[in-house]
Specification:
alpha/beta, Metallo-beta-lactamase, Chain A, 11 strands, single chain
């Protein structure tokens, strides 16, 4: 168990069809063949884990110029980043009492556009950026070819970064902070298990968007599921960790849960 604090850093919102979050959230029927879509906002957030060994930034959010040409127009239309310009990473960290220079390490769950947009702040520095080998390869494959996933923006991660590659499915790089691969959303998506003094937390990243993905095992939707079998296996792996440690499980984009966790942990 580690004496650490975890701050939640709000990085703005995305407006999108909620069928992206849960497969079949809106489904037509015979009597209502064209139901109204559920179009709503989801939160984007990062963590700062103030650990005795390092101050760790967990994900880096959307790029602040997402609306001004950094994101391709089709992605802007799909996941409208209406307030990204108000949420530069350095500004949001400052509001939470940190500066870019305070960050000793960066951990990337994966490299999709709403998670890797702040990596440019660490270009040319020696700050290690932890990411799984499978994720880095898939991100470049997707961004450089017509295959893979369309949710990567090459300019987010194609920088002179001090990549620290995670190779195994479970690695502890800091005391009682485990990086655990949860493939499904992407092949290299990696969550984090933190064993605080008084509780264990499982940060699923986008392996779980919202409560129905976890509680009902309803898959992610609309092309955002790289492997359904792998996704289901990862859900069961998370549930086993939850049972073993009586852990709190934190989802990636659940607006209701986000309001409950905004104060962070360990304060």
């Amino acid at each position: 168990m580690v004496d650490a604090t975890i701050d939640v850093i709000y990085r703005g919102g995305l407006e999108c069809d909620q069928n992206y979050m849960v497969e079949g959230r809106t489904v037509g029927t015979h009597d209502e063949p064209n139901p109204d879509l559920e179009y709503d906002e989801i939160p984007v957030w990062n963590l700062v884990i103030d650990h005795p060994e390092a101050t760790i930034l967990w994900d880096t959010g959307s790029h602040h110029d997402a609306l001004d040409g950094h994101w391709p127009e089709d992605l802007v239309q799909a996941f409208y980043p209406y307030d990204a310009h108000e949420h530069r990473l350095d500004d949001d960290l400052e509001q939470a009492g940190y500066s870019i220079d305070d960050i000793d390490a960066v951990f990337q769950t994966h490299l999709h556009l709403d998670h890797a947009g702040g990596l440019e702040f660490f270009a040319g520095t020696d700050v290690p950026v932890y990411v799984h080998e499978k994720e880095l390869k898939f991100a470049y494959y997707s961004a450089k070819t017509e295959a893979g996933s369309g949710a990567y923006v090459l300019e987010d991660f194609d920088h002179d970064l001090n990549w620290e590659i995670i190779h195994r499915d479970r690695e502890e790089r800091f005391e009682d902070v485990e990086f655990v691969r949860f493939p499904g959303h992407t092949p290299g998506l990696t969550g984090t298990v933190v064993h605080l003094d008084d509780q264990t937390l499982v940060f699923t990243g986008d392996q779980v968007y919202q409560a129905p993905n976890y509680e009902d095992e309803a898959p992610l939707g609309v092309g955002l599921l790289w492997g359904k079998t792998e996704w289901q296996e990862s859900i069961h792996r998370i549930k086993e960790i939850e049972r073993r440690h009586d852990a709190e499980v934190v989802y990636g984009h659940d607006a209701e849960q986000f309001e409950a966790i905004r104060d962070g942990w360990g304060r």
